[in-house]
C-alpha cells in the first residue's frame, strides 16, 4: 500500500509498518513491527500491510486515534509503529506486545496455537541501564498470565537496544527521505549529526559485539534447555521466541554479512537456528 493515509474501513486486519527503502519486504527490519508480523503469521490470520513513511508515523497514528504508548526521555509523546487495526471488531492496538495479547484473546486456537503457554523458562534479566540511542521501551504489562512474557520482552528489548549502534548504519531508507530521517534520529539522541550518533570504527564494532555476546549468554542458555528444536519449548513456538526473533530479523537485515554470520553461530548456533525457523514458518510479508 501507499503511505498516503486514509483511515481504513476494511473489515479485516491491517498491519501498519515502517516503510524502509523500497522494495519494502527486502529491507523491512524494524524489530517491533516484525514481532507483530510474526504474531499475525503465527496465528495464520489474513491481513494486509500499510507501509508508513517515517515522517508520517505521528500523523497516521493520530488519524487512527491510537495514543502513543511510549514517551521520549523528555516526556514528549513518541508515536511509533506497529499498529494493528481490526475492522471486524473496531479494535486499534498500538503496541507489539498488546497486539499479541489481543490476537491471542480473539483467536485462541488459531494457527500455531497459544502464544503464551505456561511452563516456559523466561528467567532472563538485563541489569544494564539505557544508553546509546535511548529508545523508550514499553512499560511492563502486569496482566496475568502474560506478565512473565512482558518482563522477558522488556529485558530482551533492553539488551538489544543498548547495542543498536551495531545495526543503525545498515538501516536503509528511501534516498529522498534519508537525510531527514537521519537528522531526526540524531536530534532525538541529542547529537549534532548522524555520524556522531552511529559512527564506530572496526575496533569499536568488535568491542560492542563482544558486549552483546556476553549479555545474551544467559538468553542463549534458555534456548539450549530443550534440544528437540530451535524454540524455547523445543518444537513448539511461543511469543518468547518471537520477542527475540524480532531483533534477530533486524540484525539479519542491517549487520554486515560477516558479523551476522558470527552472531548466528554464537552458543552452538542457537540464534541462527531460531531465526531460520521463524523465517521459514512465519516470515511471509503479506502486502
UniProtKB/TrEMBL annotation:
Pfam families: GST_C_7, GST_N_2. Residues 20-111 form the GST N-terminal domain. PROSITE patterns: GST_NTER. This is GST N-terminal domain-containing protein. Coiled coil: none annotated. InterPro entries: Glutathione-S-Trfase_C_sf, Glutathione_S-Trfase_N, GST_UstS-like_C, Thioredoxin-like_sf. The lineage of its organism: Eukaryota, Fungi, Dikarya, Ascomycota, Pezizomycotina.
